Amino acid sequence: xxxxxxxxxxxxxxxxxxxxxxxxxxxxxxxxxxxxxxxxxxxxxxxxxxxxxxxxxxxxxxxxxxxxxxxxxxxxxxxxxxxxxxxxxxxxxxxxxxxxxxxxxxxxxxxxxxxxxxxxxxxxxxxxxxxxxxxxxxxxxxxxxxxxxxxxxxxxxxxxxxxxxxxxxxxxxxxxxxxxxxxxxxxxxxxxxxxxxxxxxxxxxxxxxxxxxxxxxxxxxxxxxxxxxxxxxxxxxxxxxxxxxxxxxxxxxxxxxxxxxxxxxxxxxxxxxxxxxxxxxxxxxxxxxxxxxxxxxxxxxxxxxxxxxxxxxxxxxxxxxxxxxxxxxxxxxxxxxxxxxxxxxxxxxxxxxxxxxxxxxxxxxxxxxxxxxxxxxxxxxxxxxxxxxxxxxxxxxxxxxxxxxxxxxxxxxxxxxxxxxxxxxxxxxxxxxxxxxxxxxxxxxxxxxxxxxxxxxxxxxxxxxxxxxxxxxxxxxxxxxxxxxxxxxxxxxxxxxxxxxxxxxxxxxxxxxxxxxxxxxxxxxxxxxxxxxxxxxxxxxxxxxxxxxxxxxxxxxxxxxxxxxxxxxxxxxxxxxxxxxxxxxxxxxxxxxxxxxxxxxxxxxxxxxxxxxxxxxxxxxxxxxxxxxxxxxxxx
Length: 636
Description:
Blueprint: E1 3-7, H1 8-16, E2 19-23, E3 26-29, E4 31-36, H2 43-52, E5 58-61, H3 65-78, E6 84-89, H4 93-96, H5 99-107, E7 112-118, E8 152-156, H6 161-173, E9 181-187, H7 188-191, E10 194-198, E11 205-208, H8 216-228, E12 232-236, H9 238-243, H10 246-256, E13 260-262, E14 277-280, H11 287-295, E15 298-302, H12 308-311, E16 323-328, H13 331-334, E17 340-343, H14 346-353, H15 367-382, H16 394-397, H17 402-412, H18 418-428, E18 434-437, H19 442-449, E19 458-460, H20 469-480, E20 486-491, H21 492-497, H22 501-507, E21 513-518, H23 523-531, H24 553-560, E22 563-567, H25 570-582, E23 587-592, H26 617-630
Parallel strand pairs: 2-11, 4-5, 4-6, 6-7, 7-9, 8-9, 12-13, 12-15, 13-14, 15-16, 16-17, 18-19, 18-20, 20-21, 21-23, 22-23
Antiparallel strand pairs: 1-10, 2-3
Helix pairs in contact: 1-2, 3-5, 3-20, 11-15, 18-25, 20-22
């Protein structure tokens, strides 16, 4: 067997170029490229290897480690987990900045490869710059903080260790049942150390995403559950989207009159215009979906984790009468809510299940159409919510006084409602455009009222609800769909936390559109405070002398080189959106919206910790309500 002498870093890059994935008869490279912020610990090793020979890998310079990692995650999510970007950082703070992004990838089961530098394997110069020291172990480095948020984690302290570590990492990343972030930390002296690697290690390696078929027992059990149910509901999760189950979901739903409801990750698996699609489920769901779920005697969960938002903290279903059937490639997820488990690929399972349901129809009948029509009427109302400084809707103001709302209207010079603005965006941009969001009130609004008419145009991260994903992730989506318009829907809070990769998008000519909803505060958390009896405490953006903060975000983005717009009315918003379509450079639309004008809960409840002891009667009542709700909630 031949040998080839390479540094550890050179071997890494050579290996990444030879990893392929095989899905449904198609074969293509798995690693598209690599994001970097170079510093000591990776610039002389991985940086040198990339400069010498990057192969087919596309290399992008990030501006913030967390931001570029979010871009990599959004790319993989948009590519249905079939392609990835790697991410390399320096030691110390550079790698520490990956923690939030790693958690985001892990919670959402998104494969991404993190390659942070590490301290010296020899320990000769310890402690090196940015090295932490623990008295109980010299082996601990900043990268140990990434262990809990990685699906696979390893540290390379010898060049030959790279071989087994990389093979293991790619096994994890290409397994649909446990896909997530793989972290391989490489000691900075070892990155430059040479080794005689076997040439065979660098041969083309194909990772097969074979669809796991259900066994006969699983199919018979699933068919029996469905046929014996009167009102089954299909809960479409992210696993259904990644499996490509759209067509069979539509066929099953139509033939057997079974309504579809969606999780955040599952939304846009089936377009909103499908007659039996009742939209988002749970705390941020539609009234139609939540009513259907409440009536259901069988919940068919397809590729879902059953998070608290999807299940309304396990109060969304009639647990006394409803049974659960879970179809999931993850055995862990299939067991949830004590369900009958089918541990298999969603699309394959549904295709094999369909013939066993011949002649079956649910008793939902015309109820599905009635529920959808009722919700469409409510969405239409939300699209036309208007305010004046003299007459705010008392149901919307949510404990804010007229005086406070007038203060916001005067300072931000707006009477625009967030729901009106959001639906205007939905109705104005091209149908095949892709939206991305993650944190604050916008994910709830889009799950309820955003109607995607084209599949896979909804890239919302709500497994971790990570602030900062929105703008950075838009770059990743654009890399995945270069011919589509990409819109980052972001609140002012998330924008202030992290928007560094807007600069990267401008730098590399990857046009994204940032649609910034500015209500001068953490509006979502302010609602949480006040809905549970509290006041408004450090969740509004106010100056030292208690005035509402008014930031010109358009001017900020203009300084970066973006085309910008300032919006205070519906007509200004439509004009800005139409003009933004014509631009070749990235854009930012600064929309001033009033607080308390987002959507509210529709027949849902969220279990949050409320103070058991308080001197405020409103908090005491909120605690009593929580205790009442917990009596009906499932504990497993």
